[in-house]
Cytochrome p450
Amino acid sequence: MPSDAVGSSGGPFAFMIFGTTFYVITQAKHASEIDKNTEALSFDEFVQDFIRSAGLSESAVQACFLQRLAKEKSGFPNPSGHPLGILIRQMQVHQLHPGVYQRALEARFLRSFHRQLRVEHISHITQAQTSGPISMYKWCADFFTRAGEYAYFGNTLGDIDPDFSKKFYVFDELSWQITYRIPKLFAKKMSAAQNTLQRSLKTYFQIPQSQRDETAWFTTAVEDELRAIGVSDDDIATIFLTVYLTINTNTRRATFWMMAYILHSPSLVQALRNEIAQAFEGYDLVNPSYVFDKSLCPQLEAVWLETLRLSSSGSSVRCINKDTIIGGKILRKGNKIMIPSRLLHMDDTIYTEDSSLFRPERFLDTGNRVRGGWWRPFGGGKSICTGRYVAEHAIKMCVSIILHRFDVRLTDGAHLPQGDEGIPGLGIMGLKKGEDTWDNVSARSFDG
């Protein structure tokens, strides 16, 4: 590595994996520089590399990312004549940012939570029919993945493969192998699950749209755009598997960590129940906007922010298109930049000397710690998560419903599980091997 590329404390440092050099950014001011430098530093190549590794054909890559579309085309507006790959991100914003489509999607999540979050629906995870020990990690994965699937694909995908969410769990836990281009010889389990999921998605998209149940606007609109440029069913399935991944991988994990931190802070359970009570009538959450309101539910908001701070292990990634100076160091063309959110979130000068501890009150004391380059749970700049608004609302809804509907008690000797910081990822960390926890779950009584 050239001496002018890395070196001084606080500046970028580098490592190599499978022949690619990654520069790691350790300072918020440098992260902000990178977010603004869209000329020399690009996110688009990373997306293309990822989706190629996921199995998208080269002809589809060319059609989606390198072929500019007409400005006057039918379908979703394209006044700048962007390729479809960029247009799809704009369509995600249209679906997921505050507005009619966002509210419709959140209503689907809530409908699924009301349906799935019942004791009788978790017997396939528990060790008893109506109550008993349950893997919180697998439970959150199960009901949240089913909710995301229903929100975007209605009931049809589940009808094609009732175990789709279970197979996705296997794939998702290993999907980092796609990002880092692990050879298939060493990624057989991930590849097998991926192939099964893609076959089910292909079957889904071969069913006429009129015969599918409750499909989200985004799903139908993107499919129409892909078919208009001649993308095959196999490639459509591959693209939507990556969509499915972005819908579910971080939300299910963030829900787990939020519940884990709450359960290991016993005083929070009743405090949060008291705070969210007015949003419920009997068993059901009838006023979700109440739990979204930071002034009405400040403790829920603080727990959400602190959970994101502690559990975010993803990195924003940029490809370097020309030599660039960041932090006084030359970052060479052809390599990649990583901005690891966890490194910034654990800075003691920003979050005090106890930054490794769960202390939601730090977000009750001041709001300035969620701004600026030190706060990156959703990435930043061009690659900032388009689904951050829906993710926040969906997670707050389901955590509120769990606290309201269930008594969840830690088993004897239970400890706060450890996240797997050693597995690279693009968002919320998973569990370290052997750290899965089993909690006792039973329905709360609402008599009187």
The two ends are 70 Å apart (CA to CA). The longest strand covers residues 315-320. The mean pLDDT is 89. Residues 13-67+89-443 form a domain with the Cytochrome p450 fold (CATH 1.10.630.10).
